[in-house]
Every structure is written in structure tokens, then in C-alpha cells.
Specification:
Elements: E1 3-9, H1 13-24, E2 31-38, E3 41-48, H2 51-60, E4 68-74, E5 89-90, E6 96-104, H3 107-116, H4 128-137, H5 142-151, E7 155-163, E8 170-175, E9 180-184, E10 187-191, E11 203-206, E12 211-215, E13 220-223, E14 229-230, E15 235-236, H6 252-258, H7 260-268, E16 272-273, E17 278-279, H8 288-293, E18 296-301, H9 303-320, E19 323-328, H10 329-334, E20 343-349, H11 355-366, E21 370-375, H12 381-386, E22 389-391, H13 404-424, H14 428-439, H15 441-449, H16 452-462, E23 467-472, H17 477-491, E24 494-499, E25 517-520, H18 527-539, E26 544-549, E27 562-565, H19 573-591
Parallel strand pairs: 18-19, 18-20, 20-21, 21-22, 23-24, 23-25, 25-26, 26-27
Antiparallel strand pairs: 1-4, 1-10, 2-3, 2-4, 5-6, 6-7, 7-8, 8-12, 9-10, 9-11, 11-15, 12-13, 13-14, 16-17
Helix pairs in contact: 3-4, 4-5, 7-13, 7-15, 9-13, 9-17, 13-14, 13-19, 15-19, 16-19, 17-19
This protein binds 5-amino-5-deoxy-1-O-phosphono-D-mannitol.
């Protein structure tokens, strides 16, 4: 949510900042801007829309070279996307420029104070107060001014600040919104995530909350808010840069859908224990006693990760006999949840930075619950603060619509349930078949991907429909929720996921011949009852698209639009059916010509509440 990149070093920062912004654009793309220092003056450039607009503005201008600059791509929170609201924000005397991710909750009070002191505001944003505050507090020492300013802020922030009188440094601060610093020879790059850094260097420092970093071309010094120097480790990140490229695919989303056999293969690799027919998952750091001591699991997450959690609930209850509840992370955080030392609070987050999921983790820890996380982004805040968990190894997910992270999350949850199950009630023999099925997930996904042309045809036939229902039962119910989320976020069609039994309790009133219902009806428990629900929809003239098991002849008479997934155990169906639904959503959005990787109003990582 919003992207920050900043550079100080021996090279001209402008093209580097532009390419950094392009890599971060998936985090927000309402507007963007750059501020850099040249001959003790700050120049700034801002444009509404994509980074390419900023780039053409800069190409047309006679901008001078600069070796220090900050840049930002915005996802609007306060004020419409506009040049004035785009970052960087400058102070009244134009000697300070700031880029900010997060939300300043007390900005109104600060703003009226600053206005009373003569500060001239240019934007409607909460962020601009920071630039003016620093100007007011500056007494010849940028670090001291920033340190004093952040003490007055309530909210979440990741910041990068420059001052025209101190062009030898950038000051970066983190509190609730990630900041990582890349260290290279004669240059340092600050960014809100690794994607803007890894093409320059693999040596990075992740800031912790309340860290203030003084970054020069040759050094990074970190202090706490009391101005005491602190040390942070330099990490070497194992990130394949090409993984963040489209590699010939039209969209990142399509690439990521097709990457799923490999991504899930990576998530599974080395984690199955063939000697004991269990799962290893060493990051969970739980021995057999820990596994039997846990009495209850609460999964807290948002969006697609929440839907993965719902499938995890079925796995954990079904296989391990463990009471499991799934909560929207924001609700968990504010609801005064009942947890104790025998509860495991499991946070699921692709980015590992989602504000509500992070807050849920902190709340669970504070209440004495055990915690663990399932994350994709290595070194992310949730993964670090949870202290134990399982990485997905899915590789970077750039498309705003989450795809491969979901199937990896579900695969990891299945292995986790297997591990709990083996400790609690599953026999060696019970587990053998499941292990076999888990190993075949990449193959099963491949079989779904081979149907893509057929799914594309169905998507084209129904792309005009503006309302959609997705229905399912049992393991296919959370798939219906995820399928609806996928379709709505990239095609902007109204889509809702329901339990198949729920339609007749109200939603069925909406159905007519223009309202497709996608029925998830693979040949596992619940199929026969779902067929009854399909009949009910057809009786209301609603067109029905059915996702069925390959070779299941019993459904062909209900529709011409049959999507097939391979026959597998019920535990695998939520994965294969979801891949089919991802393709359906993708092709509907493509047929409508939507901006699939950067859907309107969305951002990849939601770091505000
Ligand atoms: O990074 P997280 O998994 O914590 O993100 C949670 C949601 O913001 C995310 O899944 C969102 O719903 C996606 N746009 C779904 O495709």
C-alpha cells in the first residue's frame, strides 16, 4: 500500500527512482512523484496515474542530475488522486521533502496547529504535516528534527526524508509500515519492499518499529527514538530478480496462475516426512508434546488469506480433530478474543505486512496465546514478530489479485493439519494416502491449467454478465468465496460467494437469465445436494456454469459450460477448483479489457487499518 523508494550514491538517482517505482507500482498506482536535491535546492515532479505518466513528465522537463532523491507511488487514503496529493510533500520553505506510507491519525490536530504557525499546506493528505513539522523543529540537525517530529505522530508510518541543507543523507523511519535498506558499494537504496532493491543489492537491513536510520552513500547508522545507536543485522536476501518479471506472459496474474505447479512444488519440497508419514515443518518449532497440548487454533487473516484459512479450518478439524476458528483479523483484534496458552493463533498473510493481521498477531501475543505465521515474504514483519511459522516459498507475487500464494497457503495448511493429525489421532497408514495426494498437487494443478482454453471460451461467453453467484458446499464452500473475490477485484463485476444451501434463504430472489451461477460441484461429499441447488437456479432461468470432476457424466445435462478438474481426494479439490476459478476470473477481466495486475482502488499490501 503505497511504495517508497529513495536513493543516495554516486549515480544519477532519477532513472533509478523511476525504475524502483515501476517495481513498486503494484503497491499503489493512483499517482506518483519524485523529489531530489540539486545544488542545495529540492526539485519535485508529480503526476496522476501510473509511473509512466511521471516518467514522461520527467523526460519532457529539463531536470538536472541528482545523487540523492526520494520517490513514492500512492494508494490514496486521504484526498483524491491528484498532483497536489501525490508525494513527496514539501515543507513551506521547500527545504524538506517527505514520502510517507501509512496513516497519521492525529493529522487534523497537527495541521491546525501548523497552520496557526503560518505553514502553507498544498494537499488534503495526512502525510503533509510531517514535512511541516520537520521544518518547524529543524535547528540545523535533520536527524534530531525527524526524531522530534515522529514523537508527535500517532499512527503508522514508513518515512524517507531529505533536507536541501543536508544533501549527504536520507533519514528513514519505520513505525508499523515496512522500510528496508539496501547496501551496495557507494550507494544505499531505501524502499518499502525488496522488489525495488534486489536488482541493486542482496545485502539489506530490515528496520524495526521505532528505528531511525541515517543513510548515506557509504554508511547506514540506526538509532532509536531516544537517539541511542542500535545495531541491526545485515541480511542477505535470496531473491531471484527474474521472478519479478512477466517472462512473456501478458499479465503477472496469468504468469502467477501458471507458476502454481512449481510454486506449490516449492512449498511442499522437503517438508514431507516419509519415514513417519507426517510433515516436517521445522519452522513451526513444535514437538509432539506441543502438538497435543494445543487445544484450539484460531486463524486470523484478511482477503484471500482468510479464505485459505477457512479451508485450513476444515483440514484441522477433519484430519486432526482440533477445534479451529477463523476470524477476520481486524475483528479478532478489537473483539477482546478469548485465548490462552493452549490456543495457537495462526496468522496467514502473503505479504506479512497486512496491518490488521499484524495487529491480530500482537493482540494474541499480548493475551498469552501461542502464535505462528504462514507468510510468503521472507523477513516480513509478521514472519519476524511471530518468531515461528512456515514460509510459502511461492516466490514474489506481484499481481494484486492473489493466486499462487493462496494455493501454497492451502498446501501448507494441509501439511500442518497432517502434522497435528499424526500426533493426535491419525495412523501411519491413514497418512500414507494423504502424503501421496499432497505430492501430486503440482500434477493436479497442471491438469487444470491444461483446461485454460476451454475456461477462456466459457469466460468469453459470460463476460458481459454484471452479476455472479458462486456456490459450493464443504471443501468447495470457501472456494466459492475466493472465486467471487477474484472475479470482483479484477473484472469489477458484482460477485458473491455463498454456501449452496444459503441461496434459497434470500439471494435466489436476484436470479434471472442474465445472472450466472457458478456451481462448484466436484465429486466429493455434498455434490448430490449441490445438484439440487443447481436445479433450483435453473428453475429461476439462471445460467449455470459447473466446475465438476473430469469424467463425471452426471452433470453434463445441466449445462453446456462445464469446467473440469481432475479426480482427486477431497483435500485437494479446494486447490484445483480454485485454480479453475482463477482462470475464469482472469479471462472474464481480460475479455473486458480491465487492468488485471493493477485493478482500480486496490493495492497489493494493505498496511492501513
Ligand atoms: O498479504 P496478505 O495475504 O495479508 O493480504 C491480504 C489481502 O489484502 C489480500 O489477500 C487481498 O484480498 C488480495 N487482493 C486478494 O486477491
Amino acid at each position: 500500500m503505497c511504495g517508497i523508494v529513495a536513493y543516495i550514491g554516486s549515480k544519477n538517482c532519477i532513472p533509478l527512482l523511476i525504475s524502483g517505482l515501476q517495481r513498486l507500482e503494484y503497491r499503489g498506482y493512483d499517482s506518483s512523484g519524485i523529489a531530489c536535491i540539486h545544488k542545495s535546492t529540492i526539485s519535485d515532479y508529480k503526476a496522476v496515474g501510473k509511473v509512466k505518466e511521471l516518467n514522461s513528465l520527467i523526460e519532457k522537463s529539463s531536470i538536472d542530475e541528482s545523487q540523492v532523491g526520494i520517490a513514492h507511488t500512492r494508494w490514496a487514503t486521504h484526498g483524491l488522486p491528484s498532483e497536489a496529493n501525490a508525494h513527496p510533500h514539501l515543507s513551506t520553505n521547500r527545504k524538506f521533502a517527505v514520502v510517507h506510507n501509512g496513516i497519521i491519525e492525529n493529522y487534523k490536530a497537527l495541521k491546525s496547529n501548523l497552520e496557526a504557525k503560518g505553514c502553507k499546506f498544498q494537499s488534503e493528505t495526512d502525510s503533509e504535516v510531517i514535512a511541516h513539522l520537520i521544518e518547524q523543529l529543524y535547528d540545523g540537525d535533520l536527524v534530531a528534527a525527524v526524531a522530534s517530529a515522529v514523537k508527535m505522530l500517532v499512527g503508522a508510518y514508513g518515512l524517507a526524508v531529505i533536507a536541501s541543507d543536508e544533501p549527504d543523507k536520507i533519514v528513514a523511519v519505520r513505525n508499523g509500515s515496512p522500510i528496508v535498506i539496501g547496501i551496495s558499494e557507494n550507494e544505499s537504496i531505501i524502499a518499502s519492499d525488496l522488489s525495488a532493491i534486489v536488482s541493486h543489492t542482496k545485502q539489506v537491513i530490515f528496520l524495526n518499529d521505532n528505528d531511525i536510520a541515517i543513510v548515506t552513500a557509504s554508511n547506514v547508522e540506526i538509532r532509536n527514538q531516544e537517539n541511542v545507536p542500535i545495531s541491526r543485522e545485515i541480511d542477505t536476501v535470496d531473491w531471484d530478480f527474474s521472478a519479478a518479471e512477466k517472462s512473456g506472459y501478458e499479465h503477472f496474474m496469468l504468469k502467477e496462475i501458471f507458476e502454481q505447479p512449481e510454486a506449490v512444488g516449492n512449498a511442499i519440497r522437503g517438508r514431507l516426512d516419509h519415514v513417519n508419514n507426517s510433515a516436517l515443518l521445522s519452522g513451526l518449532n513444535m514437538d509432539a508434546q506441543d502438538l497435543v497440548t494445543i487445544k484450539r487454533i484460531i486463524i486470523a487473516a484478511c482477503g484471500t488469506s482468510l479464505n485459505a484459512g477457512l479451508i485450513g479450518e476444515y483440514y484441522l478439524e477433519d484430519l486432526a480433530g482440533l477445534v479451529t476458528e477463523v476470524e477476520q483479523a481486524a475483528e479478532f483484534r478489537y473483539r477482546n478474543p478469548l485465548v490462552d496458552a493452549e490456543t495457537l493463533c495462526l496468522i496467514i498473510s502473503q505479504s506479512g505486512e497486512t496491518a490488521d493481521s499484524l495487529a491480530a498477531l500482537r493482540e494474541a501475543k499480548l493475551k498469552g496465546s501461542q502464535v505462528a505465521a504462514i507468510c510468503n515474504v521472507v523477513g516480513s514483519t509478521i514472519s519476524r514478530e511471530s518468531g515461528r511459522g512456515i514460509y510459502l516459498h511461492a516466490g514474489p507475487e506481484i499481481g494484486v489479485a492473489s493466486t499462487k500464494a493462496f494455493t501454497c497457503q492451502v498446501s501448507v495448511l494441509l501439511m500442518m493439519a497432517l502434522k497435528f493429525a499424526r500426533a493426535r489421532r491419525y495412523t501411519y497408514t491413514d497418512a500414507a494416502e494423504l502424503i501421496n495426494e499432497i505430492e501430486k498437487i503440482p500434477e493436479y494443478i497442471d491438469a487444470v491449467l491444461k483446461q485454460s482454453k476451454k475456461i477462456e471460451k466459457i469466460a468469453k461467453r459470460w463476460a458481459h454478465a454484471t452479476n455472479w453467484f458462486f456456490i459450493g458446499r464443504g471443501y468447495q464452500y470457501p472456494v466459492a468465496l475466493e472465486a467471487a473475490l477474484k472475479l470482483k477485484e479484477i473484472s469489477y463485476h458484482h460477485a458473491e460467494g455463498y454456501h449452496a444451501a444459503e441461496l434459497k434463504h434470500g439471494p435466489i430472489a436476484l436470479l434471472d437469465e442474465n445472472f450466472p451461477v457458478v456451481a462448484l460441484a466436484a465429486d466429493i461429499d455434498g455434490k448430490d445436494k449441490t445438484i439440487g441447488n443447481i436445479e433450483e437456479c435453473l428453475a429461476r432461468k439462471a445460467p449455470v456454469i459447473i466446475c465438476a470432476t473430469q469424467g463425471d457424466k452426471s452433470l453434463a445435462s445441466y449445462t453446456k459450460d462445464l469446467i473440469e478438474i481432475p479426480a482427486s481426494s477431497k483435500y485437494i479439490v479446494p486447490i484445483t477448483a480454485t485454480v479453475a476459478m482463477q482462470l475464469l476470473a482472469y479471462y472474464v477481466a481480460k475479455e473486458r479489457g480491465e487492468d488485471i495486475d493493477q485493478p482500480r482502488n486496490l493495492a497489493k499490501s494493505v498496511t492501513v487499518e
